[in-house]
Amino acid sequence: MFSGIIEGMARVTAIERDLDNVHLTLACPFAGELKVDQSVAHNGVCLTVVSLGEGTYTVTAMRETLERSNLGLLRVGDEVNVERSMQMNGRLDGHIVQGHVDQTATCIDVEDQEGSHQYTFQYEANREMVSHGYFTVDKGSVTVNGVSLTVCRPTEDTFQVCIIPYTYEHTNFHAIVPGTVVNIEFDIIGKYLARMQNLLS
To answer: 55: how many CB neighbours lie within 10 A of its CB?
Structure first.
């Protein structure tokens, strides 16, 4: 379980393909504190640490993960938003994030608002996906590349988020431009409500 509050950025140092799996080796400030079997969210995707190196660690992404996320697009040198799992005795500063990315979205616009940045993202949407809770609501929560954000001006298949300078500088949002593919996780509460409505209808 995560909160969507990014701890830092990890840089991809190696990529190894093994059948349908991809092993990603990354370097980040807290790499030396990790242990094998720990969970770390990468651009919002929960992955298990499988080995440790000198200032690096390795995680494995399987086919399902690669198909639903942007991890398969990563290249050596890319920056990834990372967050370790939430501590039960801490504050929930973001929102409840599972680390189970639902799908990708594409940035279609970035607007500089004299200090902050407004991003517009578009994602695949249809009636079946909505019935599973894959949608956004105004002032609701959404996770973009692992960052807990508040939704603005949602439509059937788009939504906007506003990024303050701190988030812009300390996450990979500074590298997002029109055409960039990001990971999104919709609010788990909305998914449960959608599921309950389907069962009761």
So the answer is: 12
Checking 118-121 for CB contacts under 8 A at 24+ apart, the result is: 118/152, 118/160, 118/161, 118/162, 118/163, 119/144, 119/160, 119/161, 119/162, 119/163, 119/173, 119/176, 120/158, 120/159, 120/160, 121/158, 121/159, 121/160, 121/161, 121/182, 121/184
Confidence of residue 197 (pLDDT cuts 50, 70, 90): confident
Per residue in 16-31, pLDDT (tens digit) is 999 999 999 999 999 9
pLDDT band at 141 (very low <50, low <70, confident <90, very high): very high
For the chain, strand residue ranges (E) read 8-18, 21-27, 39-42, 45-52, 56-61, 79-84, 103-113, 116-123, 141-144, 147-150, 158-163, 181-186
First to last CA, the chain: 30
Distance between CA atoms of 167 and 169, rounded to whole angstroms?
A: 5
pTM (two decimals): 0.91
Query: Does residue 1 surpass a pLDDT of 90?
Result: no
| Residues 31, 111 contacting (CB under 8 angstroms) | no
The pLDDT score that the predictor gives to residue 80 is 98
